[in-house]
């Protein structure tokens, strides 16, 4: 099942747990329950300031305005499809920590990859591999 086996196998109806999660003593039990779920723990490990970003060479398809291919770990990945694209601008008021990126989620070699063009550093980054 891959890395998401814990999510797919999560028992949402534990014995003894009320169906109305908000009944009784407020929201604290709900928050504690959510914090114990595998996807919240896994998500907090993936997203964060220490997320690994790898600089990769990218071939740009100017006709279609998208990446054509990229190289990672000495393998060339030809982009089969563009799934999604978006812009990310954050911390613009704090120049040393500012980020300005154009991001592309692509399918290549049967996998899904997130590429980002760092507009400030003028370089391409592989910022995610979606399982």
Task: Give an overview in words.
This protein is α+β, with helices and mostly antiparallel strands and 131 residues long. It folds into two domains: 2-46, no CATH class; 54-130, no CATH class. The chain is built from three helices and seven strands. It has helices at 5-8, 28-35, 38-46, and strands at residues 54-55, 58-61, 66-72, 75-90, 99-108, 111-118, 123-130. Strand 5 and strand 6 form a beta hairpin. The longest helix is centred in the first third of the chain and has 9 residues, at 38-46.
Nutshell version of this structure?
By secondary structure, the protein is α+β, with helices and mostly antiparallel strands. The protein has helices at 5-8, 28-35, 38-46; strands at 54-55, 58-61, 66-72, 75-90, 99-108, 111-118, 123-130.
